[in-house]
Structures are given as structure tokens and as C-alpha cells.
Amino acid sequence: MMFQALFLLSAVTLAAGKSGEALEHTGKPVVMDCKKKFVSVEFAAYGIYSSDNSFGLQGSCDPASSSTQKVKDLCEGRNKCEVQASNSVFGDPCVGIRKYLIVKWKCQSYKKGESLEHTGKPVVMDCKKKFVSVEFAAYGIYSSDNSFGLQGSCDPASSSTQKVKDLCEGRNKCEVQASNSVFGDPCVGIRKYLIVKWKCQSYKKGESLEHTGKPVVMDCKKKFVSVEFAAYGIHSGDNSFGLQGSCDPASSSTQKVKDLCEGRNKCEVQASNSVFGDPCVGIRKYLIVKW
User: Each residue of 104-126: b (16+ CB within 10 Å) or e?
Assistant: First the structure.
């Protein structure tokens, strides 16, 4: 029953976006073409995801668990991308059984910025009174179609997107340098550039000060909480409590609030070391949540 429920949920999700299928050993890939927009991968499965497929494949072959992440790594943020249904791409989730690949994606419009290494000119994300929502980032040579005419082979640092999220997610304005000091050096001796794609989002926002006992309260009435960002520490000197100083927020803040509150109608979270751990001992902290 649980598998059936999960399958039905996935089928509903798949119906909402663009989707494509590709059969192993045919050489015909799934092609995601978003023209002037950007690929946003929602879901992928390489195996036998469902017996209701274009190729009439039957049998049992649970898809490779890393399918979605693999397609994201290859295609997220590109204008066009092709992915083969192949063990060389995904590994072999069930030896001796013919498999297919299904991908579901959307074509999104983002703001985009590029920055060249060694110039000192950062990517600037300025959302005014809205908040930065990072969709994709790559530091290396993501594509030869770049503003700087860089060519050659330099696979971007795999942690690029997460790094920019850690620096900028939920801020009104943020600047990021194309620099090894920020991302590490994915290819020594090759000049690199940074590309970032983001949206400016409107969220509800709440703040809570440590030791006050007053939590951040997320009340969505008959709707459901969707946590976009959280930081427990001193996220910014521009806070409701006038806290200043240096205290990098706990890196797990957002995930912790998601674990506590995602999908609930109402949720309260205290600004407390007992919830988040203590990212900077002896410094008074606050919690900010955007949802």
C-alpha cells in the first residue's frame, strides 16, 4: 500500500510538467530544450519506474536512487540538455534487465549573472524588498557560451550551488566573487568564471531572539507551511534585535526547520541551542525563518 501511494503521488507530480522517456541501447536520449529559458529538473528515474511506459517494458527494476540528482548535475540551469538511458551514466540498478529513463522538468525564467576570476567584479543579486532564491550556480567553465569567451574543459565545483545558497539564500542583496577562496579550485591553472541563476521571491518572515522564550510562529491556517530559508546565529546586522558581531549561522538551520515544520498548518520554533546546537558559544543569537 505504501509503494502504491508513493507511485500515485509520483504519477500526479509527473503529470504537471514536461516529461520525456528514453530506452536503453537505442542511442536516443531524453532531450530537454527550454530555448531561452532554463531547465529545472523535477524528477528522474532510470530503471523500470512504471509498467505504463512508452516501450512496453514490464518487470521489476527499482530505479537508481541517484537518478534525479544525476540529471540535475548534468542539466540543471542549462537552456538545452540531452541525457542517454545508459548504465554508463547512472550505473546499473538491475543487471540483465532492459531499462528506460524518464525525466520530468520545467522551463523556468531566472535572473542570471556571470563573474570572471581575477577581476574583482562579483555576481550581484539585488532583490530590493524581496528575497534571493538561488536556483543554480557553477564555478569553472560551465559552458563555452559565456560572456568572457572562455573555452576549454573545467568541470564546475560540485558544491557551487550549495555554496552560493549558504552565502545568499533569503537575503535581499548578495554579492559573490568568482574565486578559488570561495569555491576551491576545480581545475588548477585554468581561468574560471562563475554563473549564478536566481529568482526574487516574496516570503513571510519571522525572527526570534535567544533566551526570550518567544518562538517564530508560522501560521498558514488551512494551507501548509513551506520553509524556504532559516538561519540561527547572526545572519545579518540588519535584524529586529540590533544584534551585531560575527556568528555564522548553523549550516543545518534550514533543514532543521524543514524537518520540524514542512507541510504543517501551524508550527512554532524556538531560537535555542537545544534545537540547533550552538554555532558560536557565548554570543547571543537569533533565528530568522522565511516561509
Answer: bbebeebeebbbbbeeeebbebe
Tell me the β-bridge partners of 60.
none
Neighbours of 213 (CB within 10 A): 10
Q: Distance (Å, rounded) from C-alpha 76 to C-alpha 180?
A: 22
Q: Which of 89, 64, 85 is nearest to 74 (CA)?
A: 89
3-state DSSP: the chain helix, strand, coil percent, rounded to 5? 20, 30, 50
**Which cell numbers hold the place of 232?**
540561527
Whether residue 285 has pLDDT greater than 90 = yes
pLDDT 10s digits, 144-176: 878 899 988 888 877 899 899 888 987 889 999
Residue 169 has a pLDDT of 83
Which candidate, 158, 108, 171, places its Cα nearest to that of 135? 108
Model confidence over 213-243: pLDDT tens digits? 999 999 999 888 988 889 999 987 778 898 8
Which stretches within 84-143 are classed as H helix? 87-90
Phi/psi of residue 167, nearest 5 degrees = -80, -35
A 10 A CB-CB count for 272 gives 18
DSSP 8-state class, residue 12? H
Note the pLDDT of residue 160. 92
